[in-house]
Each structure stands twice: as C-alpha cells, then as structure tokens.
Design goal:
Blueprint: E1 7-11, H1 16-31, E2 40-45, H2 51-58, H3 60-63, H4 69-78, E3 79-83, H5 91-104, E4 111-115, H6 122-129, E5 139-144, H7 151-162, E6 170-173, H8 180-190, H9 193-196, E7 204-212, H10 221-246, H11 255-267, E8 277-283, E9 310-316, E10 326-332, E11 339-346, E12 362-368, E13 372-380, E14 388-396, H12 397-401, H13 408-418, H14 427-443, E15 448-451, H15 458-465
Parallel strand pairs: 1-2, 1-4, 2-3, 4-5, 5-6, 7-10, 8-15
Antiparallel strand pairs: 7-11, 8-9, 9-10, 11-12, 12-13, 13-14
C-alpha cells in the first residue's frame, strides 16, 4: 500500500532510536515502494550539526543490511536536519523551521510528530507543537513508552497532551505490538476455527507468557533502577500479550474494535494477592567471581537498591471464557537465555484402555528469536499398545516468508502514516493496565535473589507448583 506523502518530524533525532530503528525503517518502506519520495523527514536535535555531519553520524550502512546505493540516495534526499533546543526554543522557531522545509519539498500538509524523547519532556513538546496542529492535512503524534510511571503520573501526562491533541491523534507506541508474531496471535485465534473453538476454560488448563532476557541493564541503569521489571516490561509488553491471548472476538480486525476487546480484558483482571507475585534481583554466581556483576554492582545502580529485575505473576481474567484459568506471566534480566513466547497448555485427556498420556497438548507462539508457531500433540508409538509420544508440528515464520518480514518499527511507522491505530495503546487500555500494576505493586512481597545465568528464582517455580503445575 502506498502511504501518503507527508512530513515526519523526529524530536530527539540524534539519539539511538532514530539511528538504529526509525531511519532504517524509512529505508525499508522506501525500498518496498510504500513511502513516496515527496515525504520529508525533518530530524531535530540540539547538536549544531550540518546536513552532511548529521548524515555521517547516522551511519546508515551500519544499520541497514545490504543497502542499495540508489535507495540510500533517495532516502538522504528526504532527510533534513535542523538544530532545535527544546529547553530554549519556542513554538514560533519550530514553526519557522517546518515552514522552510515544507516549502523546499512537496510533502504536503500532513504531519507525523515522533517523540523519541524521555517521558518528562512530552508535555513540553505538546505545548510547542500546538500551533502546528491545524486542520490542513492529518496530524498524528507518536509517544514512546514509558507513558507515566504509575496511574497518577500517567493521568497527569495524559491531561497535558490531551489539552493539545484529540485521542485519535495520539499514538502511544510499544514496539512489541509491532512484532509480526504478536500481530499473528489474532490471526491464529480468529482466522482458524480449529483453534478458536477450543480457546476457553473448558479446554485450556493454563497460559504461560514469558519474556526472558539474557543481558543485564547495560547502559540503562539510571532509567531501569527507577522502573524495574514490573513497570518496564510487565505493565506494557506482558499485559498486552495477555490481552491479545484472552480477548473476545472483536467486531472487526480494525484498531478500535480490537482495542475495545483489549480494554475489556484489562478491566476483568482479578485484583492480585500477595501470593500471586514473586519479584527477584540477579546476583553474581558464586562460581563466576567478579566476571559477572550483581545488579547492585552495575554502573549507576545504588549498592542497596531494591529494584526488581525479575517478576513472575499469576493472573486471572474474570470473564466467562477464562474464569479461574491461571495466566502465568514472567520476565527478567540476566536469565539463562533470550526468548519470548506464549504457551497455551490444554487440559490432559485421560483415555483409559487406549493410551497413557504424559504430556498435554500445547500451542507455542514464539515471538523471538525464532518466530513461529508450534503445536505439540500426542501420537501412538508404533508397536506399543498403550504408549504415546509427543510430536511437534512447527511453523517457522522466517522459513516460510523469507528474510523480508517488516521489523516492528517499520510496521509502527506504516500504521501511523496510514492512520491505523491497532498497534497503539488507547488511553482507557493504558489506564486499566496502570491500575492493575499499582494494585500489584501494593501487595508485592520482599525481594528474592537469583543467580545471573539461571532460569530465575526458585520461588517462581513454587508459584506454579502450589497449583500442581510447572513452567513448560
């Protein structure tokens, strides 16, 4: 689909997000013929770079694999760098820059504002861009997560930006919703009757959602120590995966219809109890000496920090479809491997006289790194009367569709430009998730510790064992 010519204004264009994700995503959209050459990409930053200095600092060939020189030339012609200091600049100065670039190009009046900035500056930017929010063409503003740090701060931030923008103009981005396999959850459920008819508490025993990271906090210690795993990962990524897994069939596949059902899931989450949550923090393994740091030894982390780097939660969605079916969610840093997946575990079938079934049916939705969907089911062992074996039917996304699947930020940019809100969190959805997270943090018990490079704290295993289950 050819996207409208427009102007994209990137605030914070000298940062890593613009260099590693946004500009390379525009290259791919241009390569696929989705972006019109009349589109202008206005990159704003405090540094007084010249046009050539900025293009050099983008290191385009480092972040775009096998870049085609002709397409690179077209992309660089679309990029316009201007120095603009948000602390000392004003709306009139910004309006002058935008008018100048618009006159140089044929981009039209529609504008995408992308705020690759800290949350604390969102309100300032909203006020500065207010004179540019006119009736000429569409105006859409993208806000990167985190959107607040609790319900109170999220409400304050929303009031600030809602004073300038309508909800239809606000795109709160979480790159996880742009991942191809996350979007495929809806197709798996609602485009395949063989799955949708058994997607309920009668057939399903439990659901496990895991986002496991092998790295530590790296260069994000200052941010992460204020956030922790609950607010950094659980509040957005994992709760969004839960919503897609648990929602009722939407009236249509368009954004607001899907988001209506997501809000219903968030609203139906049972208030968590103290024994529903485990929080942990990684420590250096005794055998590692000083080669692997504990969280409290990371640069920028206070020596007595109680910030959690791991969280496991038992959640319940109190709807007729899911009542009393547990959803086990977990995420953490410095774990034994990096992966993200959803496992839908079906109830075991007892077939007396026919087979001994040791393993239930499982649907595995692999979000990263090996994107795909696998189904574990039972077959009879040849020559054995009552013995079964579990086999795997596996769909490999990369193997089938090849290497050109859009990255998350490509999907995000294309969705904003086309005005499709599906991949973005609506305010009532966000408000519901913060309400749940605030309640969860109120009942969270004391911190436990786990070795870096392990699967996580033993207490997280007990969370399932007391239910007669285990992480699969």
């Amino acid at each position: 689909m050819k996207l409208d010519p427009h102007m994209t204004i990137i605030f914070g264009a000298t940062g890593d997000l613009a260099k590693r994700k946004l500009i390379p995503s525009f290259y791919r959209l241009l390569e696929r013929g989705q972006v019109d050459d009349r589109t202008a990409i206005l990159c704003l930053g405090r540094k007084p770079y010249s046009q050539s200095q900025y293009l050099e600092r983008l290191e385009l060939k480092s972040f775009i694999d096998q870049a085609d020189e002709a397409i690179l030339k077209r992309l660089t012609a679309m990029i316009k760098y201007r120095s603009f200091d948000l602390e000392n600049g004003n709306a009139a100065q910004l309006e002058s820059i935008v008018t100048e670039v618009r006159e140089q190009t044929r981009c039209g009046d529609s504008t995408l504002f992308y705020l690759a900035l800290p949350t604390s500056i969102f309100g300032t930017v909203a006020a500065i861009i207010e004179p540019l929010i006119d009736e000429l063409g569409w105006k859409r503003v993208v806000f990167e997560k985190p959107f607040g740090s609790d319900l109170s701060s999220a409400r304050k931030l929303n009031r600030q930006i809602s004073a300038v923008l309508d909800e239809e103009q606000i795109y709160r981005v979480d790159h996880y919703l742009g991942k191809e396999l996350v979007q495929n959850i809806l197709f798996l459920r609602f485009a395949n009757e063989i799955f949708s008819c058994g997607w309920n508490r009668d057939a399903i025993d439990s659901v496990q959602i895991t986002v496991s990271e092998s790295l530590g906090v790296e260069e994000r210690a200052a941010y992460y120590n204020k956030s922790g795993a609950i607010r950094d990962m659980l509040q957005n990524h994992l709760l969004q995966l839960l919503c897609f897994t648990a929602m009722e069939p939407p009236k249509s596949g368009y954004g607001n219809a899907v988001r209506d059902e997501a809000v219903k899931v968030i609203s139906a989450l049972r208030p968590p109890a103290a024994d529903d949550v485990v929080v942990g923090q990684y420590v250096s393994p005794l055998s590692a000496g000083d080669s692997i740091r504990s969280y409290r030894q990371e640069n920028g982390v206070p020596s007595e920090s109680t910030t959690e780097t791991y969280v496991a939660v038992r959640a319940f969605v109190d709807t007729p479809r899911w009542f009393n079916t547990p959803f086990y969610l977990r995420t953490g840093k410095r774990l034994d491997r990096r992966y993200a997946e959803i496992k839908v575990i079906f109830k075991e079938q007892l077939l007396e006289g026919l087979a001994t079934l040791d393993t239930p049916n499982i649907i595995i939705i692999r979000i990263q790194p090996d994107e795909g969907i696998a189904i574990a089911f039972n077959v009879r062992k040849p020559g054995e009367d009552h013995e079964s074996e579990t086999v795997l039917m596996d769909f490999c996304h990369h193997c089938h569709f090849g290497p050109n699947t859009p990255e998350a930020y490509e999907a995000i940019l294309a969705s904003v430009i086309s005005g499709e809100p599906l991949l973005f969190t609506r305010w009532d959805w966000l408000q519901g998730s913060w309400s749940y997270i605030d309640r969860l943090r109120e009942v969270t018990s004391s911190l436990v510790f786990y070795e870096a490079g392990s699967p996580g704290p033993e207490e997280a295993d007990l969370l399932l064992e007391q239910d007669g289950r285990s992480w699969r």
